[in-house]
Amino acid sequence: MSALLQIAGLTAHYGDFQALFGVDLTLDQGQTVAIIGANGAGKTTLMRAITGVAKVTAGSVTLAGKDITRIPAPDILTHGISMVPEGRKLFPSLTVEENLLIGAHARRGNGFWTLERIQTLFPILKERRHSPGTALSGGQQQMVAIGRALMSNPQVLLCDELSLGLAPVVIKEIYGAFPQIKDSGTSIIVVEQDISQALRVADHVHCMMEGRITLSGRPTELSRDAIHDAYFGVNHA
Amino acid sequence: MIFIDTLAQGMLLGGLYALFAAGLSLVFGIMRLVNLAHGDLIILAAYLILTVATVTGLHPFVAVIIAAPLMFGFGWLLQTHLLNRVLGNDILPPLLVTFGLSVVIQNGLLSTFTADSQKLTAGTIEAASVDLGVVTLGVMPVLTFGSAVLVIFALNQLFYRTALGRAFRATSDDAVTAQLMGIRPQQVFAMATGIAMVVATIAALYLGTRANFDPSIGPARLLYAFEAVIIGGLGSLWGTLAGGIVIGLAQAIGASINPEWQILSGHIAFVLVLLIRPRGLFPRAND
């Protein structure tokens, strides 16, 4: 199977500070890849580098065979990559429905995900459609953020820290939508600090530490100890 | 009876101030840019209408239809080639650049049109009035006020009923996240400045038909506009209309007591409102 998204030797800097060191990652069509790691491991920077928000200084990002490295952030969406940012980042002056509609701002043509389908996926968003987006609970805001990202009908959905600050029951409800998202033809990269959750949803897991991928494999192949050691940087040698 | 007439005249004058302020409010609401050249851009638009009317022989109310798109284009270019370069976390560079722009416009107009006062001639409509029994209202002031209400209504519709308006508000909230939605903040800013210049052109039409103008009067128009925006609440368009009316009423009441107090009364009203409601009468909830 040819890779849908191919990241090769990706390096990124914030000024003089190097945040990513030659990251390699592959996402196949229909796959869910999880990136786990502690705070400061470089997970969010990797998402920001893919979407053109963070400056890429070396390496490449290829989507369906097309080089999209260094494409400006506003153009990434039209190339088929959409992002659920860390902390949801809903627009406070927009209602729930407007937050969803703004996700389709750059959309061209039709696709599976429409306002009605998002509201079917998360029925509460229809009920609260006229409320300000930021007036919702954290879990409901996360649903808006996911719905907003889906409104562009992306090939690849990047989810940054979906479970951050949410109760386990809410996290379960949100991840419960993943099968339907995958069925719509969208491949997913999910960044998580919640290791158990990441292992449950992912077909493939990468662990990051200090801007590098230190462990990769299928969830069934990776032992708890290996993940623990990679996550916390424990070296038994 | 005289008091009712004073209130009516003051309210209608507030419409002119609201027109001065609407463009400023729009630009500030979207990109947090205080355009110190806004008053001078209104005067530039007045000279543009005058030039179009003089060259073509058109009535100023028709000439404005030609001037408005030209000012939109000027606003677009101004934003894309100058202001976008200085927008950022530091508010000082845009303030300095727009201050410099103000000086450039004033001197450019002075060199081109001299310091002589000019006026847009609208014909008999200038002296026409409507007798309502209780008060008699000038047609021009009524038209000015009606235009202010229409402009602010149209801007509100644009803001809250269109995809462009959603992009305006999203960019104003969080320009980085807006980019992830495929929005180009710099183009959104250029569109906003273009629209603000169209509103400035409408303000210029009424300024120029109601009173004399010369290259030096821009800063005072900016002051009235700024006060109206602050009184109304930063970024609130209907608040801007209310702010204009407050200044207009204060000036009319002050002038009825002593004509020399007209301008001062407006400024005192501004300070009083700030003392009582520092965020203005109708602040946006998320500001």
Following the backbone from N to C, one meets helices and strands of chain B in this order, namely HHHHEEHHHHHHH
What's the total number of strands of chain A? Answer: 10
How is the largest sheet of chain A built, in terms of strand order? 6-7-8-3-9-10
Shape of chain A: globular
Description:
- The complex is a heterodimer of chains A (237) and B (287).
- With 237 residues, chain A is an alpha/beta fold.
- Chain A has a single domain (3-232), classed as P-loop containing nucleotide triphosphate hydrolases (Rossmann fold).
- In chain A, 31% of the residues lie in helices and 28% in strands.
- Chain A has 10 helices and 10 strands.
- Chain A has a 6-stranded mixed beta sheet with strand order 6-7-8-3-9-10, sandwiched between helices. In chain A, strands 2-1-4-5 form a 4-stranded antiparallel beta sheet, covered by helices on one side.
- In chain A, helix 3 (96-102) runs parallel beside helix 6.
- The mean pLDDT of chain A is 91.
- In chain B, helix 1 (2-31) packs antiparallel against helix 10, helix 3 packs antiparallel against helix 8 and helix 6 crosses helix 8 (185-210).
- The mean pLDDT of chain B is 94.
- Chain B has a single domain (2-276), classed as ABC transporter involved in vitamin B12 uptake, BtuC.
- By secondary structure, chain B is an all-alpha fold.
- Chain B has a two-stranded antiparallel ribbon with strand order 1-2.
- The A-B interface holds A 51, 53, 72-78, 82-83, 85, 89, 91-94, 98, 101-103, 105-107, 132, 134, 148, 152 and B 163, 166-167, 169-170, 172-174, 176-184, 284-286.
